[in-house]
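hey m, so remember when u said the tokens were messed up on ur end? i reran from scratch. heres the input so u can diff it against urs
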Amino acid sequence: MLQPDAILPQRAANSRNSPGNRVDPLADFSPTIVGSLGAMTGCASYFSAPVEPGWGLIALPVAVAGVLLATVRISPASRIGADRLAGLLAIFLVATALFGWHATRYTAAHHDREPFVTGDRAVELTGWLEAIDRSGGGRQRLLLRLVAADDGARPQRVRVLGDPAGIRPGDAIRLRAVLAPPRPAAVPGGYDFAFHAAFRDIVATGYGIAPAEAGPPVHQDRAARAVARLRADMSRHIRSRMQARPGALAAALLTGDRAHIDPGDVEALRRAGLGHVLAISGMHMALLAGGVFFAVRLGLATIFPWARRYDAAVPAAWVALVFAVGYLVLSGGTIPTQRAFIMTVSVLGAVILGRRALSLHTLSLAVIAVLALQPQAVITPGFQMSFSAAAALITVARLWQDRSRRGSQAGALSQIRLFFGGLGTTSLVAGTATAGFAAFHFHRVASFGLAGNLLVMPIFSLLVMPAGVLGLVLIPVGLDGPAFAVMEWGLSIMLALAHMVADWPGAQRYLPATPGLVLALFAAGFVASLLVRGLWRWSGAAVMAAALGLWAVLPQPDLFISETGLILARDDATGWVVSDRRRSRFAARVFLEARGVADPAPAVWDANCDSHGCNARLQGVRVTRLSSLQDWPTDCSRADLIVADLAVPPAIARQCQARIIDADELARTGGQSLHLRDGQLVAIQRARPLVGARPWHGR
């Protein structure tokens, strides 16, 4: 029979007292940790499913959990190990079902709007300016919040390329723009802006046809508009205290305003493995809250009569929590910042309650809280990289503490060596833990990321962020100049070092994309390598190695067809060839980057063309790009694959021996990646499913 305490984690002491001194490999799997793993599995299963799962995602795990518990209950003499394993599996399955259901409901709530379609004609938008940033091409991009019909309505945002013409964030705005629905993924497995836009309440994107002007007074969102003005004023003040390049980076770090960063600096930071510095995330929140916590705790500890009677950590944690809330508001409250704030609250809350602050239990609570608020975060690189780094650091910190207890660390020299050794270990562990997830999402690896972090992060942690926080505190009294001068000096050194590392030969290597199942296998091995004890821990490393091996051997697509009919094919002589360099350039670039091609510049294909279209032999397949059906019988008899710029009537398609992909099919599925073998089409991957579209595909 299942005992209630059977599912509790078993201590190492119990393992040492067990017969034969055997180590329980599942000793670290507590109900909270298992529940967080189930939460991630449920959310990830829902969002990665090719079709809408329905109630099966909920019913099946619950049914299996019920069978497990019933089997253990009716067992006449079950062992405590079997009881515990069954209980943990039941918790995992129930959490999977609950969070799968939660993801379903959350998604439905954010994708229930009518499409915001205006056609090709410009419309007038009125509302208030929420933020200004820059597109990948360097153009100014405005985020407008439209005036809601009533105060209880969910906000509607529109993102447009345009000139703010002096309108500041928080001010009322009027703008004429041409709009379209948010665009879905351009290539199979690519970034789906339509998916993420719905969760941010962005209903349309486009471009302004004239500079913005002051709009009618807005009486809604008073608090949000005040925060937007404060952020803009703070960003402008910080930039006025420094030179342009370090000032822009300082504004991004302290207020989240990245509109003024030099694109060359952004690329250098990424090539040097320092791209994580740009996004306000767990590291920034930890440095701010941790710095405030230790400063306040040190100050209170100097008050000896008070310090003898009370624990200085509790008031220090409360003060750090207040600063964390302020930083969350000032930085714009983006999704990565919200995740970092939740983790910080978990750690500081543990300190206030007298619990262990940094533990996998605390991290699991943060995971559950994040997914309860943002279930879609589970498939984003920020979530995966931040929590994988935190989990790895907590695990290694436990081993580091055990080692420190065995050896003496007395003396200033030993403490300095311990500090820099810990800093190097932190960079190595965090970089290793996040490398696989970063490579999967971004298809590139910074070869010298460890060197870049070892050179830059001491400056960032000990100089830049402390000076920045001090400068923010001193702004109200006008004494922020010296602090920001120190921050500017540190940022200038950071940028110089980042550019130096980025210029090293081979600083960045590109990798081909791989299916999501490979990432799931890698993540499962990663979790096992952290949580499983004893020699079984190596099983996790073996699973990770198997995932990487699978990544290396899985075949890549041989041909790509964009939503507008562009054909891009692998060529043994020139690498890649394209049917038209002027059409679908963005989709072609994204596809080639996902194939691990650096600086993609495909050659134009060598095709025979006439007034009805073009045909060429690509990878042993006769491909025809058709613009007219006037001579379709000849085209059907000569081609293996026909890509038509127009809709092909079903009657013609039934008589054609070639595989036809016409404009109607591409409009439904988006871009398609084709796998060829021995002159035959063996597999097709689509950006959107041909049938059973998900809620975000209908926007």
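this time it looks ok to me. Residues 1-8, 10-20 have pLDDT under 50 and may be disordered. if urs says something different then somethings off w ur setup not the seq
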